[in-house]
Amino acid sequence: MSDSTATTESRFDALRERAPDTRREAEALLDRIVRENRFTIAVLFPLVGAVALIGSAEGVVPEPFAFHPWFVLFGVLVMRSPLVVGVLPTVDRRALGWIGVLMAYTYLIEGVGVATGWPYGEFAYTVDLGPMLAGVPVALPVFFIPLVMNAYLLCLLLLGPRADSVWVRLATVIPAVVAMDVVLDPGAVALGFWDFGGGAFYGVPLSNYAGWVLSAIVAVVTLDRAFSSAGIRERLRDCEFMLDDMVSFVILWGGINVWYGNLLPAAVAVAFGVGLFRADRFDAQVFTQWRR
User: Fold this and answer.
1) What separation, in Å, do the N-terminal and C-terminal C-alpha atoms of the chain show?
2) pTM of the model
3) Where are the transmembrane segments (predicted)?
């Protein structure tokens, strides 16, 4: 055996020894990775993303990098990682089943929307967002489900014991989900991600938000079925980075709306930021990392 082969095998052996052997160990490793990189994930990525997307829309970023779908998807996945890692310990077979139901609904309602204009209004994708399936981006659940989950978790934190009531949860989370789209859609239309052909609210028709009320109801009911209320709240209490994806959302889409003069969507993004600070979900540890 050559020295180089022996060295390679030794390195593989070392990697195998460090690799987690159980789900709990894997979750602890992922927690540590996210925790040690919070500023990069939750602040730098959305800032760079906002600059790249605006630069693409304004023709500053050259082809083939402008709105490159794989760059966009990579950035989204990185920003989603705190939420995914945070939720992971609460995911069991029941949760996977209901998340599968929500994914199916996401494709179905978007496919119906593209084909018929119901319930969101007539719209079309005008930027390549990766592989498409029946006119719908394959990665659509990566964009939609975390948005709903972020609103759901933030409301659980802010409501405290009042979240025990299913009616209080519904009455709070559904408007929060719609409010997140009040931030998202005007910014996406300004960038040229998709086009409604005009609308009363920064190029977005009001029918779009009626459709989001329907989707929010389905999503919130599904999340209630998917997760143990006690389990998700315990993890949320103990995991300080679980809502960092929402911090990214505020920075990315709030910044884009400010750039394009969409003042009301920008103000709603700021309101979400205030909610995050009130919930103590974006603490000094992040900025300590930055100072290093």
Assistant:
1) 44
2) 0.91
3) 39-61, 67-88, 95-118, 138-159, 166-189, 209-227
User: Which residue carries 């209490």 as its tokens?
Assistant: 237
The model's pLDDT over 123-164, given as tens digits with 9 standing for 90+, comes to 999 998 999 988 899 999 999 999 999 999 999 999 999 998
Number of Cβ within 10 Å of residue 196's Cβ equals 19
d(CA 40, CA 24): 25
SS3 string of 193-261?
A: CEECCCCCECCECHHHHHHHHHHHHHHHHHHHHHCCHHHHHHHHHHCCCCCHHHHHHHHHHHHHHHHCC
CB atoms under 10 Å from CB of 13, counted, come to: 10
Residues 6+ apart with CB under 8 A from 281: 154, 157, 240, 242, 243, 244, 246, 247
Cα–Cα distance measured from residue 234 to residue 243, given in angstroms and rounded to the nearest whole number: 14
What does R_g of the chain's alpha carbons equal in angstroms?
20
pLDDT band at 182 (very low <50, low <70, confident <90, very high): very high
Are 200 and 178 in contact by the 8 Å Cβ rule? The answer is no
Q: For residues 129 and 198, what is the distance between their CA atoms, to the nearest angstrom?
A: 21
* Weakest mean pLDDT among 102-111, 160-169, 170-179, 254-263: 160-169
pLDDT band, residue 73 (cuts 50/70/90): very high
Distances (CA, A) of 190 to 53, 195, 199, 275: 11, 9, 12, 25
Report angle CA 99, 118, 129 to the nearest 5 degrees: 60
